[in-house]
């Protein structure tokens, strides 16, 4: 056999250089390097490979196609179809918002608050559940609690149901439009949690391209006429079904703190909590005992 002298050997170092060139304009350098490492690990099962390690043509085509998709702004989580949340790998796709670190902070704060006070919620409601991340994590944390999760999107609920089946199983899922329907739970609740749509449409121009172009606007944007409408609905409706001493825990847009205080303090004892970056990101509203 005559050797093919035109064959170019492709190595890890070549991939890193090409990928970085493709991604540097869309991502911070540190994030680009991290994504490149993820690609090598997730798609080639290579952890800290040597720069000289050779990559076959088939494997090269696989990982360069991932880079191409990333270069258009497509989130890495949608390419892999998964995201880690509270130690659990969850399925994600463009029907659901990608769970954020801030939302995991909300879960951790609620869990710590309930445990510190020796309160084990018996019935938990998660509105705007999306991937089901909060509902599932709370069911893991409080396995004896009943959990009900709602969303307006059938496609999102299908993802949440799959995720629940993988990790906890027993969660009730209901499709409901909180803005147009009256929510009546089967029993009174001890804990209501939600990460509702809270981005004002006027903020869209400042959003990263990978968020605005690919993540579901239904889960991102609040009504332009009233960016706090979801909060009004959740806080008002919970008066009818929250047990005395029950807690409502919400992820919020920091620019609406004063308005939310006015809304929530009419019926609840209100506390705001900061996220890891120091921004006021969470509202805890406790119903009087």
Automatic annotation (TrEMBL):
Ranges where the Methyltransferase small domain occurs: 122-203
PROSITE patterns, per the entry: N6_MTASE
A single GO BP: methylation
UniProt source species: Schleiferia thermophila
Keywords: Methyltransferase, S-adenosyl-L-methionine, Transferase
Matching InterPro entries: DNA_methylase_N6_adenine_CS, HemK-like, N5-glutamine_MTase, PrmC_N, RF_methyltr_PrmC, SAM-dependent_MTases_sf, Small_mtfrase_dom
Swiss-Prot/TrEMBL catalytic activity: L-glutaminyl-[peptide chain release factor] + S-adenosyl-L-methionine = N(5)-methyl-L-glutaminyl-[peptide chain release factor] + S-adenosyl-L-homocysteine + H(+)
Pfam families membership: MTS, PrmC_N
Keyword Transferase appears in the UniProt entry: yes
CDD domains (UniProt xref): AdoMet_MTases (cd02440)
Gene3D superfamilies listed in its UniProt record: DNA helicase RuvA subunit, C-terminal domain (1.10.8.10), Vaccinia Virus protein VP39 (3.40.50.150)
EC nos: 2.1.1.297
PANTHER family according to UniProt: HEMK METHYLTRANSFERASE (PTHR18895), MTRF1L RELEASE FACTOR GLUTAMINE METHYLTRANSFERASE (PTHR18895:SF74)
Ranges for domain Release factor glutamine methyltransferase N-terminal: 50-81
Entry protein name: peptide chain release factor N(5)-glutamine methyltransferase
GO molecular function: nucleic acid binding; peptide chain release factor N(5)-glutamine methyltransferase activity
